[in-house]
Amino acid sequence: MPVPQQYTYPRYLRSKRTVDDRALNRDVMEAVLAGLPSDRPVRIAELGGGVGTMVDRLIETGRISNADYVLVDTQAEFLEDANTLAAQWRQGLTRNLTTAVPGVSFEVSTRHVPLEDWIAREDSTFDLIIAHAVLDLVDVETVLPRLFERLAPSGVFWPTINFDGETIFMPKDPRDGALMDAYHLSMDERVRDGRPSGSSTAGRELFGHIRAAGGSIVRAGSSDWVVFSGTDGYESDEAYFAHHIIHTVEQELGTHPTLADSVRGWGELRHAQVESGELVYIAHQLDFAVCRGDAEAGVVSASSTPATDT
């Protein structure tokens, strides 16, 4: 595809659906799904829920029959997109389905609020709390202890796509090392509302943060993004996804005191490689299935069943 003239975050979120589908760790996902109740609607909250692609994904697994699902996000335009699909989700339909999944119904409501504020104000507990590609953007040490208070005693916390220090573009370019070092440093130095909000090694750090906050890790595994052009080109809208990732690096480093000129030339090259189908993009990430430290033993044993490809 030609280099986009305009980048929008809702399109980015939709374009990465297929990337995430491949990346999500199946063993971790199975541990999460196996630990959920089957005799009543599952109470689910998703932090940073975006346009609702995770709702689509969970409906399509057919593993959850009924759910009361709360989507939390700071961006009203994302939630508006999700709200247009609420009636379909109630019928067991998704963006990708023309026939409803039999016996499946998700009742979805939205909350337009920063996740930190929602955690502080919410007094309900949930069987499943999802943080999809969001924990590497917040002050984890502050968020996690409060989040576990919102998790039911036998509930499951599922933080996914947690970036962990590796950004790879192929073919190699001599500028890659300096640019990626600076890009990762910008994650480490990110501050929002006077607090640190992110880390370039957020994935590996979660092992310590989860335990310190009172959680118990049931499963953990890699969830790497791998984007490449096959015989029919890039899958779905993944060429746009690759362009958007390159654009993100350009935006982050475009005013860098020593690397601004370098990133401009690098960006031109990488965009051209997407257009020609040469570019391969890989990002290393980690997924976790977590229960509260005081959880009933059944959660762990139920989650220890062998993984299946869902």
Keywords:
5-stranded parallel beta sheet; globular; 310 residues; Rossmann fold; alpha/beta
Summarize the structure in words.
The protein has 310 residues and is α/β, with parallel strands linked by helices. The protein has a single domain, classed as Rossmann fold. It is 40% helix and 26% strand. The chain has 13 helices and 13 strands. Strands 3-2-1-4-5 form a 5-stranded parallel beta sheet, with helices on both faces. Strands 6, 9, 10 and 13 form a 4-stranded antiparallel beta sheet that branches. α8 (140-149) packs across α10 (202-212). The model is unreliable at 297-310 (pLDDT under 50).
Mean pLDDT: 93
Overall shape: it is globular
Tell me, what is the CATH class? Alpha Beta
Unreliable spans are 297-310
- Listing every helix as H and every strand as E from the N terminus to the C terminus, the arrangement reads HHHEHEHHEHEHEEHEEHEEEEHHEH
Number of helices: 13
Strand share of the residues?
25-35%
Number of strands: 13
Helix content: 40-55%
In the residues, how many domains can be counted? Answer: 1
Q: Say which CATH homologous superfamily is assigned.
A: Vaccinia Virus protein VP39
What is the fold-level CATH name, i.e. the topology?
Rossmann fold
Radius of gyration computed on alpha carbons: 20 Å
Question: What distance separates the N and C termini?
Answer: 30 Å
Largest sheet data:
5 strands, parallel
User: What would you say the CATH architecture is?
Assistant: 3-Layer(aba) Sandwich
Strand order of the largest sheet: 3-2-1-4-5
Supply the helix-strand structural class: alpha/beta
